[in-house]
Amino acid sequence: MPEISRDEVAHLATLARIDLSDAELDHLAPQLSVILESVASISGVAGADVPPTSHPMPLTNVFREDVVVPGLTAEQALAMAPAAEEQRFAVPRILGDEQ
Amino acid sequence: MSDPTPDLTRTTAADLAAALAAGETTSVALTQAHLDRIAAVDGSVDAGVHAFLHVDTEGALAAAVASDERRAAGAPLHALDGVPVAVKDVLATTGLPTTCGSKILEGWIPPYDATVVRRLKDAGLPILGKTNMDEFAMGSSTEHSAYGPTRNPWDLERIPGGSGGGSAAAVAAFEAPLALGTDTGGSIRQPGAVTGTVGVKPTYGGVSRYGLVAMANSLDQVGPVTRTVLDAALLHELIGGHDPLDSTSVDQPVPGLVEAARQGATGDLSGLRVGVITELQGEGYQAGVLARFHESLELLTAAGAEVVEVSCPSFVHALATYYLVMPCEASSNLAKFDAMRYGLRVLPEGVDAPSAEQVMRATRDAGFGDEVKRRIILGTYALSSGYYDAYYGTAQRVRTLISRDFEAAFGRVDVLVSPTAPTTAFKLGEKLDDPLAMYLNDLATIPANLAGVPGISLPSGLADEDGLPAGFQVLAPAMADDRLYRVGAALEAALHDRWGGPLLDKVPALEGVAR
């Protein structure tokens, strides 16, 4: 029977880039175990010979003509940025911890 | 300015369009009437219906003025030109906030329009505002909105369904004649059922998803939310059809939906084969919901349809399949909210010169609510190495079985039917911290999303035990959306005859609730 421990939830939260508080971990871990136990009921329902469906429409390779169309201006793209400088997104430092 | 009369807000979109065409009213008059109604009953997070997160008085009236000018100039007009509409806050609108009910997008104004919004604007429909929803469309009650719940116009202490509770409540409370919703597992149809309104999830790929902020790409669809089947057909025809900006959009003509609704309204269903889904009734369904469902079946039979029972054995696994497929897709879709290019940015406390990753983690903790976090963590788990085959792989194979059940069933019957939701509207707060109980609301609506087939919910009456609306669902094969409208309009006509008018005539007066 699947069970997600509090430590596992903390690890998953790190992978998903969410800083869960201790209180949130206490709250979420048991709920996730219950949900997982319930959805695990479908294991064994479909045999290995049943092909998977990832999408309701069997579409492959949708192409369009390779023509230039107008896009957003730099000003429009940056209008909602938390911070911008010199026509670029300004972001926190990306190096320095583990690198 | 014309005198707003209450009648305009209680008129169907089709009749408003006819009144505009006949010169009996103006778009400014009826847009103002709806804005006045919103001001009177919508209130705020504390009181009133609270269907709207943002009302665009100025923009709606400017569009109405432009519509009246076009009409006066004798320009060729779309049938709905000048009829106002409300838009779920998950659809991108230039110049209007688009929050998806989340703090992480508070104040975000998109630089582009969703294709469906562009089509509304091109056809001249004034947009009244953006409607409330569960955060990123995750929920069945609108209680997961970061901006507070919407209240059901039938009883303000009850949920309006979700995730599109705002669009359904706005239409049920006569704040808008038309609205757009989105349906990933039932978010148009279940709110329709519990508010006594009509909601349609089109065939997957039938309506463009460009500019719809995705929860689960392989399941999401945009569709109409209205008070009548004909109004839904009018709005569906306007937003439907191929869009080169959406690579999953079907490049086929939309079948004649308005024509099908008009034909259905004549009440003749002879030759139609209707299949009652064995697995979507009985245990877990409220007695009053089932009673109204069976009455509707009798009306279909009386209209000439042949009603038989059809078993779809894999449907009992649809809920579990959905709650694996959807979180997997959602967890990867919501990775884009990273605090770098748009949306909220929160700096972690007590950290000097935080890294981008620390900012990301602090922002996503502060910006996402409980249900969104639950689904992201669940999806991250089910997609992680070692579990992928056991969870996501298994769910994808069961999804195939569900599609096969539909194929087999549609070999025997033209449409399938069930109650839309297992119960009527429950009390606000009742299931808020019990995710599994909340998920059960989507039991009957989810199979259609997994297989990509279209579905409609229309009101079947009030449950005896609580006097609240119940919904009747019709499902059709992919790209046969016209069948929903034929059957829906025929049933609606028979029910209106029985009730002596629309069900929403019985909704309580709401004047004074917005204090």
TrEMBL record, chain A:
Domain of life the protein comes from: Bacteria
GO terms classed as biological process: glutaminyl-tRNAGln biosynthesis via transamidation; regulation of translational fidelity; translation
Pfam families in the record: GatC
Reactions catalysed according to its record: L-aspartyl-tRNA(Asn) + L-glutamine + ATP + H2O = L-asparaginyl-tRNA(Asn) + L-glutamate + ADP + phosphate + 2 H(+); L-glutamyl-tRNA(Gln) + L-glutamine + ATP + H2O = L-glutaminyl-tRNA(Gln) + L-glutamate + ADP + phosphate + H(+)
Keyword Ligase among record annotations: yes
Molecular function via GO: ATP binding; glutaminyl-tRNA synthase (glutamine-hydrolyzing) activity; transferase activity
EC number(s) reported in the record: 6.3.5.-
Keywords: ATP-binding, Ligase, Nucleotide-binding, Protein biosynthesis, Transferase
Keyword Ligase in record: yes
UniProt cross-references to PANTHER family, sorted A to Z: GLUTAMYL-TRNA(GLN) AMIDOTRANSFERASE SUBUNIT C, MITOCHONDRIAL (PTHR15004)
Role noted for this protein: Allows the formation of correctly charged Asn-tRNA(Asn) or Gln-tRNA(Gln) through the transamidation of misacylated Asp-tRNA(Asn) or Glu-tRNA(Gln) in organisms which lack either or both of asparaginyl-tRNA or glutaminyl-tRNA synthetases. The reaction takes place in the presence of glutamine and ATP through an activated phospho-Asp-tRNA(Asn) or phospho-Glu-tRNA(Gln).
Quaternary structure (record): Heterotrimer of A, B and C subunits.
Membership in a protein family: Belongs to the GatC family.
NCBIfam families, per database record: gatC
Protein's name according to its UniProt entry: Aspartyl/glutamyl-tRNA(Asn/Gln) amidotransferase subunit C
